[in-house]
Write a structure and sequence with these properties.
The complex is a heterotrimer of chains A (about 160), B (about 425) and C (about 260). Chain A is built from six helices and two strands, in the order H-E-H-E-H-H-H-H. By secondary structure, chain A is mainly α. Chain B is an all-alpha fold. Chain B has a two-stranded antiparallel sheet. The chains are: A mainly alpha (about 160), B mainly alpha (about 425), C alpha+beta (about 260).
C-alpha cells in the first residue's frame, strides 16, 4: 500500500466519506421500508400522515350514506328531496363541496348551469347503456341558451311539476 | 397579465409538444422527449470513447496509442454531459441529489448515481496515472520559473494539487503507473458497458411499453454506444489533426515552433494509420449493432403479439422515413458501404463517421420518441413536435436549444480540460 | 442392513415431501382473509351503471386540487361506441370532466366523427382510475423511494421527495399518472387517502349518483364490496402485466384496455 498509485483511491474514499456525512444530515431519518418490502414500499414514513392531513372538501353525501351529512341541519328538506326522482344525486354534485359550511362558506355556490343538467340529460343513442333510462334532449334544439331550472324543478323533475 | 400567468402556470408537462390522434388516454403525453434522446446518445459516446481508449491500454493495440489518449480525455469531457440531459429533464432538478441519497435499487435509474460516479472515478484515476508525469514536470517547471505571473501561480497551484503529492517520476514509478493504468482500464471496460447497458435496461425493462420491452435492449444499446463513441473519436481526432497540421504548416502554435515539433508529414501519416485501424473496429461493432436491431424487428413481426398491430403501423407507416430511410439507410447502410468498399480513404471514413453518428442519434430518437408514439390503449397515436423557439423554461429545456446546449458542452469542456490534460503529448512526458 | 437404511430414508423423504403438499391443499381463501383482519382497500367499478355524467371527475379534481382546466386527471371516464358495421370508436374529451354532452366522437387533432344513431350497436362508459396494484410497477421503478404502497394497499407519491423524472409515469400500464401542472411532481389517484382513513368515501365514490363506483376493504369478508367481488364475475384491466390490480370491474369488454 506504500505505492503512490493508491493515492486516487484515498481521494475517492475522502469523497465517499464526505457524501455519507452529507447524507446523514440530508435524509430524513424516518426513511425506510414498510410491510411490503423494499421494492414496493421504500419511503419517508411521515409522508403517509401528510396525505392523511389533506383537507376534506366534500361531506359524506354519497350513495352509501345518502344525504346523511346535510340532513343534520337541513333534515326536513333533505328528507323530501331524497324521495324525489333526483334523490339519488348527492347534494354536493350540484350544490358544490360543503367545505366548512356553514362557517366557510356561509352559502354554497350552487351550479345552476345548463351544462350541469346536460351531463345526464343529453340525448345519446346508446341503447345498451344505462343512459337509455334517462330522458334526454338535444341540447341544440331544446330551448338553447336558457337555464333548465327556469322551467324544470331540479329537485322534482317530473314534467307535471314544471314551473 | 394575471390571466397570462395562469395560462403559463397551467402548462401541463408534455402538452406543448404532443399532438394526440384518435383515442389517447387523458394523461398520456410524450413525457420523455428530446433530452431523454440525448441521454443515451451522450452516455453512448462516453462509453464508446472509453472502450476505444481501452483497446490500447488493455489489449495493447499499439497502433491506437495516440487516438487512445485522445479518446480518454474526450471521454472525461463527455462525462458530466451524460448527466446533463437527465438533470435538465427533471421536473425538480434541485432534488436530483436524492438519487444518491436514497437510492431505490429496484429502479434502473437509481444505480445511475453510483455507477456513474464509479465510472467517473475510474476515468479520472486512469487520467491521473497517464498524466502524472506531465503534472510533475509542469509543476516543477513552473516552480523553477522566476517572477511568476498570477496566472502561472494559479497554474502551479492546480498542477501541484493534481500531483496528489506523488512527485516520484523515476522509471520504476512510471512503470507502476503503467501497470495500474492497465488494471484501471480493465476494470473500466465492464463498468463502461454496464453504464450504458443499463441505460438500455432503463428502457428495456418498462413492461408497459410494447416497443421498449425486450431483453435485447441493453445489448443493442451497448453495441450502438461503442459505434457512436468510436465514430465520434475518429471524427474529432481527424478534425484536431487537421487543425494541428494547419498550425504546423503556419508555425502558429507555441508547440509548432519547437525544434522537434511533428512535421506535417508525420501528422498526416499518424492520422491515416490510426483512422484506418479505428474504423475497422467501428465496422465490427456496427455489424453487431445492426444485426441485433434487425433481429428485434424481425422477431416482433414474426411473433405478432397483441401490440404488433399498432407497432407495425408506427414502424412501417408513420415512422417509416425516420426508421428505414434516415436511421437504417442514411445512418447505417451508406456509411457501412463507404467504409467497407475497397479504396477507403481518410476523407471517406470521416464523412462516414458523421453519418454513423447521425444514424445512432436517429436510433435513439426512434426508440425513445417512437416508443411513445402510440397510446397504451393501442387505439391512438401521439406525434412529437420538437419545440424550436422557446417561450418558457420548459420549452427551452425540452426543445432544440436544450439539445444543442447538451451537444456543445463537451467541446467546451474538452477545450478547458485540454489545458491541463493535453490530449496530444510528446512521448517523453507521458505514456 | 443397507436395504433397511434405504427404506428408512425413503420414508423420511416421502414424509418430508408430504408436509408442504398437505400445507398446499385445503386452503379456503375466506379463512385466510378472515385471519388477516387488517385493511386492504379495493375499488369496484360497475360499468353497467355508468352513464358518463362525469360528476366523479369533477369531484375528484375539486377535492384533490387538480386544476379543472388542466388536461390531466386522476380519474376519467371513457366512452366506447361500436357501430353495426363493426367499427369501434373510443374517446374521453377532457377525461369526461364535463360529461358527454355531444354524440360526436372526438378523434383528436380537432377532428370529430358523427355516428349515425341507427348505426350504433353497443355503447357504454368505463370509469378509470389508478388500480393500486398489488405489485405496482410504478413504485418498483422510482429511483428515490418517492412513491410507495402503504400497508393498507394505497399507492402514494411523496410530493416533497419526488424528483420528477417521469419513470413511474412511463412504467404505469394504465396511464394513471401525470405531472401535477402546478407542483411539478408526479401525481396520481390516492383513493382519497385523507378521506378513507377518516371513514369517508373517496370523492368520486361520494359523487356518483348511480353507484357505479364503490370502495371497500377486501380483507373484510363481510364488506359488501368484498362480497360482490367474490360473487360477481369481475375482471381487471391488463392482467397480462402481472400487476395484480385492486380495481375490479363488472361488465368489462375485451376492447377496454
Amino acid at each position: 500500500m506504500k505505492s503512490h498509485v493508491w493515492r486516487p483511491l484515498y481521494v475517492v474514499i475522502a469523497l465517499v466519506v464526505g457524501l455519507l456525512v452529507f447524507r446523514f444530515f440530508y435524509v430524513p431519518n424516518d426513511f425506510g421500508s414498510g410491510k411490503r418490502g423494499f421494492m414496493y414500499s421504500f419511503h419517508r414514513m411521515s409522508n403517509e400522515e401528510e396525505w392523511k392531513k389533506q383537507p376534506v372538501k366534500y361531506g359524506a353525501t354519497g350513495k352509501e350514506r345518502m344525504h346523511e351529512y346535510c340532513s343534520a341541519c337541513h333534515g326536513a328538506v333533505v328528507k323530501v328531496r331524497t324521495e324525489d326522482l333526483h334523490g339519488i344525486i348527492p347534494c354536493e354534485d350540484c350544490h358544490g363541496p360543503a367545505l366548512n359550511h356553514p362557517e366557510a362558506p356561509e352559502k354554497l355556490n350552487i351550479d345552476r348551469t345548463r351544462e350541469l343538467c346536460l351531463r345526464c340529460h343529453t340525448s345519446l343513442p346508446y341503447t345498451t347503456s344505462e343512459r337509455k333510462r334517462i330522458p334526454g334532449i338535444d341540447p341544440k334544439g331544446h330551448n338553447p341558451g336558457i337555464e333548465c331550472v327556469k322551467c324544470h324543478n331540479p329537485h322534482n323533475p317530473r314534467l307535471e311539476e314544471m314551473k | 397579465m394575471v390571466e397570462q400567468l395562469a395560462q403559463k402556470v397551467l402548462e401541463v408537462h408534455g402538452e406543448a409538444w404532443t399532438i394526440k390522434e384518435l383515442f389517447v388516454l387523458p394523461n398520456e403525453y410524450i413525457y420523455w422527449s428530446i433530452q431523454i434522446v440525448m441521454y443515451p446518445f451522450m452516455t453512448g459516446l462516453v462509453a464508446g470513447a472509453f472502450v476505444l481508449s481501452s483497446l490500447y491500454h488493455v489489449f495493447g493495440v499499439e497502433k491506437l496509442k495516440e487516438i487512445a489518449r485522445f479518446s480518454l480525455v474526450f471521454s472525461f469531457a463527455l462525462l458530466p454531459v451524460a448527466m446533463m440531459p437527465l438533470l435538465m429533464h427533471l421536473q425538480q432538478p434541485f432534488r436530483g441529489i436524492n438519487v444518491m441519497m436514497t437510492p431505490h435499487f429496484t429502479s434502473a435509474i437509481a444505480a445511475f448515481g453510483i455507477v456513474f460516479s464509479t465510472y467517473g472515478c475510474i476515468v479520472a484515476t486512469e487520467l491521473w496515472l497517464v498524466y502524472r508525469k506531465h503534472f510533475v514536470l509542469t509543476a516543477q517547471a513552473l516552480n523553477a520559473q522566476q517572477n511568476r505571473s498570477a496566472v502561472d501561480n494559479f497554474r502551479l497551484l492546480i498542477f501541484t494539487c493534481l500531483t496528489l503529492g506523488a512527485w516520484d517520476i523515476s522509471h520504476e514509478a512510471i512503470e507502476k503507473d503503467h501497470h495500474a493504468c492497465k488494471i484501471m482500464a480493465g476494470i473500466g471496460i465492464p463498468v463502461a458497458c454496464f453504464l450504458h447497458g443499463y441505460a438500455g435496461f432503463i428502457f428495456g425493462s418498462v413492461k408497459a411499453n410494447a416497443l421498449w420491452m425486450t431483453p435485447l435492449m441493453p445489448v443493442i444499446f451497448i453495441c450502438s454506444a461503442v459505434v457512436s463513441g468510436v465514430a465520434l473519436c475518429i471524427l474529432c481526432y481527424v478534425i484536431v489533426q487537421e487543425f494541428r497540421k494547419f498550425m504546423a504548416k503556419r508555425k502558429m502554435a507555441r508547440w509548432a515552433k519547437d525544434v522537434d515539433a511533428p512535421t506535417v508529414e508525420e501528422l498526416e501519416g499518424a492520422k491515416h494509420m490510426e483512422v484506418m485501424l479505428a474504423s475497422n473496429y467501428l465496422l465490427y461493432f456496427m455489424i453487431a449493432a445492426i444485426t441485433l436491431e434487425i433481429l428485434d424487428l424481425i422477431f416482433r413481426g414474426y411473433t405478432q403479439v397483441k401490440s404488433w398491430d399498432i407497432l407495425r403501423e408506427v414502424i412501417m407507416e408513420r415512422d417509416f422515413t425516420k426508421i428505414f430511410i434516415l436511421q437504417y439507410g442514411l445512418g447505417n447502410l451508406v456509411p457501412f458501404l463507404m467504409m467497407a468498399l475497397p479504396g477507403r480513404t481518410v476523407r471517406r471514413t470521416t464523412i462516414a463517421t458523421v453519418l454513423v453518428l447521425f444514424g445512432v442519434f436517429m436510433m435513439r430518437y426512434n426508440v425513445v420518441i417512437g416508443g411513445q408514439a402510440f397510446s397504451l390503449s393501442f387505439a391512438g397515436f401521439m406525434d412529437y413536435h420538437l419545440p424550436i423557439i422557446p417561450h418558457s423554461i420548459e420549452t427551452y429545456k425540452e426543445g432544440l436549444l436544450g439539445a444543442l446546449t447538451v451537444i456543445t458542452t463537451p467541446f467546451v469542456l474538452f477545450f478547458v480540460i485540454n489545458k491541463f490534460l493535453p490530449a496530444f503529448l510528446k512521448e517523453d512526458s507521458s505514456h | 442392513m443397507e436395504r433397511r437404511e434405504f427404506l428408512k430414508s425413503c420414508i423420511m423423504v416421502i414424509a418430508g415431501a408430504s408436509v408442504p403438499l398437505s400445507a398446499l391443499t385445503l386452503i379456503d381463501p375466506r379463512k385466510v382473509l378472515a385471519a388477516n383482519p387488517d385493511i386492504q382497500w379495493a375499488f369496484l367499478v360497475d360499468t353497467n351503471k355508468c352513464v358518463g355524467c362525469g360528476f366523479c371527475v369533477m369531484a375528484c379534481k375539486t377535492e384533490n386540487d387538480i386544476p379543472l382546466d388542466a388536461n390531466v386527471t386522476r380519474t376519467w371516464v371513457e366512452r366506447y361506441v361500436y357501430t353495426k358495421d363493426d367499427r369501434r370508436y373510443v374517446d374521453s374529451p377532457k377525461g369526461a370532466l364535463n360529461g358527454y354532452t355531444e354524440s360526436r366522437i372526438d378523434l383528436g387533432k380537432g377532428e370529430f366523427k358523427e355516428i349515425d344513431p341507427k348505426n350504433v350497436g353497443k355503447a357504454f362508459f368505463v370509469p378509470k382510475l389508478c388500480n393500486h396494484c398489488t405489485t405496482p410497477p410504478c413504485t418498483q421503478v422510482c429511483p428515490v423511494g418517492a412513491t410507495y404502497k402503504t400497508d393498507d394497499g394505497v399507492v402514494l407519491v411523496d410530493r416533497k421527495w419526488c424528483i420528477g423524472c417521469g419513470y413511474c409515469i412511463m412504467a404505469c400500464p394504465y396511464a394513471a399518472r401525470f405531472f401535477h401542472p402546478l407542483l411539478h411532481v408526479a401525481d396520481k389517484c390516492t383513493f382519497c387517502y385523507h378521506r378513507i382513513t377518516k371513514g369517508l368515501d373517496s370523492a368520486c365514490v361520494n359523487a356518483c349518483p348511480f353507484g357505479a363506483r364503490r370502495m371497500g376493504n377486501i380483507h373484510n369478508i363481510n364488506d359488501p364490496i368484498t362480497q360482490l367481488i367474490m360473487n360477481e364475475r369481475v375482471g381487471v384491466l391488463k392482467d397480462e402485466f402481472g400487476t395484480k390490480p385492486q380495481a375490479f370491474y363488472i361488465g368489462l369488454a375485451q376492447e377496454v384496455r
